Amino acid sequence: MNPASPGAQGQDLTAVLDDAFVEQVRERLLAEGGVVTDTRIARAVRETGRVLGAVGSVRAAQHVKAQLTGLGPLEPLLPAEGLSDVYVNGHENVFVETTGGIRRVLSPFTAESQVRALAVRLVTAAGRRLDDGHPCVDVQTATGLRVHAVIPPVSTGGTLLSIRFRSPQRLSLADLVGSGTVHPFVADVLTDAVAARTNLMISGATGSGKTTVLSALLSQCAPEQRLVLVEDAAELDPRHPHVVGMQSRQENVEGAGSVDLADLVRQALRMRPDWLVVGECRGAEVRELLTALNTGHSGAGTVHANSARSVPARLAALGSLAGLGREAVDLQAASALDLVAHVDRTPSGRRLQSLCTLHLADGVLTTSPALTVEAGHPVKGPGWTRLAALLARGRDAP
Fold first, then answer.
1. Are 202 and 213 in contact (CB under 8 A)?
2. Which of 140, 228, 317, 323 could be disulfide-bonded to 233 (CB atoms 3.0-4.6 Å)?
């Protein structure tokens, strides 16, 4: 048989495409850094120096891609609709979360090594490494998966893997009203708030639906407006004709090449945004955002907080990471932010529970409830007068 024939190449590849070969390609990809693409895999395969031929190189690249990406044993377990998260707590405990809540499923793993191998594959696909030197990693893959992994000894119960799936469909504000997440009257108020170019901060716990609500609200922006999105992991997906997205980047294995959110906010200001949006304020970038919103820009963002009332304290904590004192943060935020919308995870689903205005009281930033959803009905609070004035400003604008 001719050594160049497909049959001979198939026999040769069986020996060539072993774990050592895949590991060699993986190390080359990690050394370069960045998201793993078909082009980068093909180049890394060629650079191994293995003599594979044209057909063999294509097959080798396909084999490596299958080993470095995909959900492997988890694939058969995934619901066809409504899936938002998968949680693997060691090889024996696997849970999925859908619109109906969290439920345990039969684990497809028979050993800890299988979970760790999957975690390493997913992290590698995002251009990072998961090993003893990097035991905790949070990444987003090219396919839109948000992956968080922790391995022993940091994890005491085997490899921990959390995978968040990007919704295949864009949820509109009408969709959120239909699902009960947002009350119809509150939705109308928020629509008017966007029209009035009100600066918004959406608060809530992890997984409460902050990003979903913000994305739906941004879809309400006028089509002639330019939206510049700054995110740690690209999750916002507004239905809008003019969206510019930027995503932070982690440092590579040499410790270089990082671009953080604060850097991106400064870059965004040079792009003439009508709306400057920080997908999640979690650090020093809050200083850049508040500064921008105090210099004529409209903007929005999300922040982790237990309640709308906790947002001032949360902003102060984040501001301290940027070297700002409480008084400076309060003064900046009182001028920059108009409205806080708080989203909760409840037993009956995700709910937008309240809208609050912000103001200074004796030099301290506080929130004042404007609308609170109680027993399924919106109730106006002391902050309603200020909110109504903000909405009127938008209606009176030319």
1. yes
2. 140
- Model pLDDT, residue 5: 39
CA distances (Å), origin 277, targets 71, 241, 268, 302: 31, 16, 9, 9
To the question of pTM greater than 0.85 for the whole model, the response is no
Give every strand in the sheet of 349-361, ordered side by side.
243-247, 227-231, 275-281, 298-304, 200-204, 339-346, 349-361, 364-374, 377-380
Residues in the chain where the model's pLDDT stays below 70: 1-19, 33-35, 51, 63, 65-70, 80, 168, 251-256, 394-398
Q: How far apart are CA 376 and CA 103, in angstroms?
A: 27
Alpha helical stretches, state H, 255-379? 261-268, 285-293, 311-321, 326-336
| DSSP for residue 224 | T
Place of tokens 């090889």: 91
Cα separation, 83 vs 80, in Å, equals 7
Q: How far apart are the first and last CA of the chain?
A: 80
Helix (H, G, I), strand (E, B) or coil at 213: helix
Unique residue bearing structure tokens 């671009």: 259
pLDDT at 19: 67
Neighbour count for residue 280 (Cβ, 10 Å): 22
Tokens encoding 230? 């700054």
225, amino acid identity: Q
146: nearest Cα among 156, 131, 161: 161
Q: Residue for token digits 């609200």?
A: 217
d(CA 138, CA 282): 14
Q: Strand, coil or helix: what is 198?
A: coil
Residue 49: CA atoms inside 13 Å, Cβ hemisphere, count? 2
**Residue 178, number of CB atoms within 10 A of its CB:** 12
- C-alpha separations of 121 from 90, 136, 137, 233 in Å: 16, 14, 12, 19
Q: DSSP 3-state assignment of 389?
A: helix
Query: What domains can be seen in the chain, in order of their start residue?
Result: 6-68 (no CATH), 78-164 (3.30.450.370), 173-396 (3.40.50.300)
